[in-house]
Structures are given as C-alpha cells and as structure tokens.
TrEMBL record:
The enzyme's E.C. designation: 4.1.2.25, 2.7.6.3
Lineage: Bacteria, Bacillati, Actinomycetota, Actinomycetes, Kineosporiales
Keywords: ATP-binding, Folate biosynthesis, Kinase, Lyase, Nucleotide-binding, Transferase
Assigned protein family: In the N-terminal section; belongs to the DHNA family.
Protein name: Bifunctional folate synthesis protein
One family name in Pfam for this protein: HPPK
Chain ranges of the 7,8-dihydro-6-hydroxymethylpterin-pyrophosphokinase domain: 235-246
Function: Catalyzes the conversion of 7,8-dihydroneopterin to 6-hydroxymethyl-7,8-dihydropterin.
Keyword Nucleotide-binding set for record: yes
Reactions this protein catalyses: 6-hydroxymethyl-7,8-dihydropterin + ATP = (7,8-dihydropterin-6-yl)methyl diphosphate + AMP + H(+); 7,8-dihydroneopterin = 6-hydroxymethyl-7,8-dihydropterin + glycolaldehyde
C-alpha cells in the first residue's frame, strides 16, 4: 500500500490503486566510482493512483494501467544512464509512470539495499509522490459555465414510471452543489437506438450552469444514475436512468471517459429534439465550429421516431 495514503479525486473520493512491488533491476547509480563501475541491484515499488471503473465497466486494457509494460519501462529507467542520487532515479521513474494515460498520481520507492554504508543496516529507501498536473477535465471553470445534460429512461425505478423517474432525476440535479438548473425541456418519447430489443424511452434535456470541473460533474450525474438503480451490464441496454453530459461550455475533449461534446449527440434526435424545445437557438460546439441544433435535428435519421410528450 501507499506510504503516503490515498490520493483523492475532485469529489474527495480516493482513487483506486495498482501496485507493482519489489521490481528488481541492475543499475550503476551512486556518487562513488566503484558504484558506477560495478553497479548493483535496485528494488523499486510503484503505486499508481487512478480510477479503474472505466476499465472494469468495459473490460478494456487501454483504460487502465498495463502493469506488464510498466514493469519493463521502470526497469529500463533503472538500467539507463547513471545518476548520483536515488532521489533523481525516483523522479525519473515517476515521470515514466505519469506519461499519458489514466494515472493521476504515483508513489515511487527506490530501495538501495547494497548502499555503501559502513554501519549495519537493512535498507535505504527514497520514497516520493508525484501528481500529474490537472487535465482540463479536472479544472473547475473560472466562472459558471453552461452545460447540457440529456436524460433518458425506459425502465421503472424506485421513483415510479419513466416520467416519474425523469422528474425525480431533475430534483436530484437541483440538489447537486455547484450545479444550477436553468431550463428543463418537455419529455419526448423515442424508440431505442442500437442495443437489444427493449422498451421505448422518455427523453429530456436539462440546461444548467456549473462551477464543477467536468469530471466532477460526470461523477455527480453517475452517482445519481446509480441511486436510481442504473446498471451498466449490457452496452446500449435498457436502463432506469441515463444522464449524459452533452456539452460543457465550448470545451472539446477526446478523453474516453468524457468525450465533449458527446460523440453521438449531433445525430441523435432523442437528444436534439428536447434540446431544441428547451432552446430553439441552441448550438452544438465542435472542432469545425458550432452547428445549429435545430438544423442537426432536421437531418437526424431517428427524427421520425420522436413522439411529443409533456412537461416535467
């Protein structure tokens, strides 16, 4: 376990940990000539702090830390150019561990059991923690920022039927600190798109402003989904409640955990139709510039499947 305790995410939740303990590699680090000439074995412990939930939900290795590749990279860091101090070596290893990927922080302990000490001793250890600079998804906006959330339900929940679930979800959003709901669209009924055979959906869109970081907002809406019994067992399967972050201001993100704008929003009438009802002048930001939401709705393939509903 980490010598420094947990590392917390933007919501105060401890990150999960992946540990690589007791990795042994030969290096020539030290201030003495014989250490450079003869070399010695170093032992490295690494604790990675990251959110493993996206990998667990998708069973996708690319969304977690590949500890096999990490072991090779850490050993190579020990074997490469000599340095005087194991503090320097520990920092080198930390940099390797924090390269692009889901790791948010790393603890590195470098053991030098053959250190040139004249007294009896068991080990010499330098332990450090390094934290990756915040990614754009982890930085709260300087001023309240407009966000668009899409809600959907096609199974009853603890709140009741689909409409009752959407109404209760709006109330839950109203209670999220740092999120101010400004507009709630009427609900529409739509046929399911993709996935197994399942009941029709009720969909709505919520316009809001937030001072939360994007990833913190995602965590908040995911927690609401879970409180209504949402289970992610079948991709595009039936659900009690789905809340997607569609836009976060003009922020563009290709992070697989939170892609912004939502990668399929531009072609989904079940998002575009209630969004247009909430804001007839809405635009969807994108790398090629903003696009009119009503214009996107006009050409959406599933537009004929949208049936008018009523207010939430």
């Amino acid at each position: 376990m980490s010598r420094f305790g947990p590392h917390l995410d933007a919501t105060g939740r401890p990150y999960d940990q992946v540990e690589l303990i007791g990795l042994r590699a030969f290096g020539r680090h030290g201030v003495f000539e014989h250490e450079r000439a003869d070399g010695q074995e170093f032992v490295v412990d690494v604790v990675l702090h990251l959110d493993t939930r996206p990998a667990a939900e998708t069973d996708d290795l690319t969304r977690t830390a590949h500890y096999g590749e990490l072991a090779v990279a850490v050993a190579d860091a020990v074997r490469k150019d000599p340095v005087d101090l194991i503090e320097t070596l520990a920092a080198r290893i930390a940099d390797v561990c924090l390269e692009p990927g889901p790791v948010r922080a790393v603890d590195v302990a470098v053991h030098k059991p053959e250190a040139p000490i004249t007294e009896a001793f068991a080990d010499v250890v330098v332990a450090i923690r390094r934290v990756k600079p915040p990614a754009p998804l982890d930085v709260p906006p300087a001023v309240p920022t407009r966000v668009v959330l899409a809600l959907g339900s096609n199974l009853p929940s603890r709140a009741g039927d689909r409409a009752a679930t959407l109404r209760a979800a709006v109330q839950a959003l109203l209670a999220v600190p740092g999120l101010a709901v400004t507009t709630v669209s009427p609900w529409v009924e739509t046929a399911p798109v993709g996935g197994p055979e399942q009941p029709d959906y009720l969909n709505a869109v919520v316009l809001a402003t937030t001072t939360l970081a994007p990833r913190a907002l995602l965590a908040a809406v995911n927690a609401i989904e879970e409180s209504f019994g949402r289970r992610r067992e079948i991709r595009w399967g039936a659900r009690t409640l789905d809340i997607d972050v569609i836009t976060f201001g003009d922020l563009l993100s290709d992070d697989p955990e939170l892609t912004l704008p939502h990668p399929r929003a531009h072609e989904r009438a079940f998002v575009l139709a209630p969004w247009t009802l909430a804001d007839p002048e809405a635009v969807l930001p994108g790398p090629d510039g903003p696009r009119s939401v009503p214009d996107l709705l006009a050409v959406a393939a599933d537009r004929p499947d949208v049936r008018p509903g009523g207010p939430l």
